[in-house]
Amino acid sequence: MPLEIRSFKLGPLANNTYLLIEIPRREAIVIDPSFECEVLLDTLEKENLQLTQIWITHAHFDHIAGVPTLASRIPHLKIGLHPADSPIWHQNGGADWFGWSLNVQVDPNFTFFHGQVLKFGETLIEVRHTPGHSPGHVIFLLPSQGIVFCGDLIFYHGVGRTDLPGGDFEQLHRSITEQVLTLPPHTRLLPGHGPETTIAEERSQNPWLDNKTAL
């Protein structure tokens, strides 16, 4: 396989941070780097991997906390964010909403949009805008792998909270119904917290979803 995916559980909120490795070129992308991301730097150094991009599903502080560390150690990183989450980013991810202190210090330098197709080595990755948890939340779909990096949109038997600024449950439900549950049942969902799950599992077992709509 030319693409390898690794998961790291990082920080006090047990965030799932994902490392995508394009094996032939030894190039890497990190999705949602959280606190305590030094383990990522160690992995990159030990395995001679070049980190070139950071992709952010949404700008809440626990999903961007590692950006300053990575950006300070690795020059010329491309950092991607949907523009609708820029206000949250510029509030340091809303860290002070929870009594945390965070100074992001660096800005995204490219934007995601719905329907965008990104290429990483031989792998095509589709961006889908999925507001509800935050206004600019996106997910990353790898059709050839049957994998979705779904951030805090949907979890194993759960969904993202909508009581934070910019949250909207009706939007969240619509995003899940239209952009996630329409995918093949075997599709793996890799969330921002907790264990991975599948479309089939969430269609039948997620208590937050209207299963008639989901089916």
TrEMBL record:
Keyword Magnesium listed: no
Pfam families reported for this sequence: Lactamase_B
Coiled-coil annotated residue ranges, if any: none
Annotated keywords: Hydrolase, Metal-binding, Zinc
InterPro entries per record: MBL_Glyoxalase_II, Metallo-B-lactamas, RibonucZ/Hydroxyglut_hydro
Metallo-beta-lactamase domain segment(s): 14-193
Superkingdom field: Bacteria
GO molecular function terms noted in the UniProt entry: hydrolase activity; metal ion binding
Cofactor(s) needed for function: Zn(2+)
Protein name: Metallo-beta-lactamase domain-containing protein
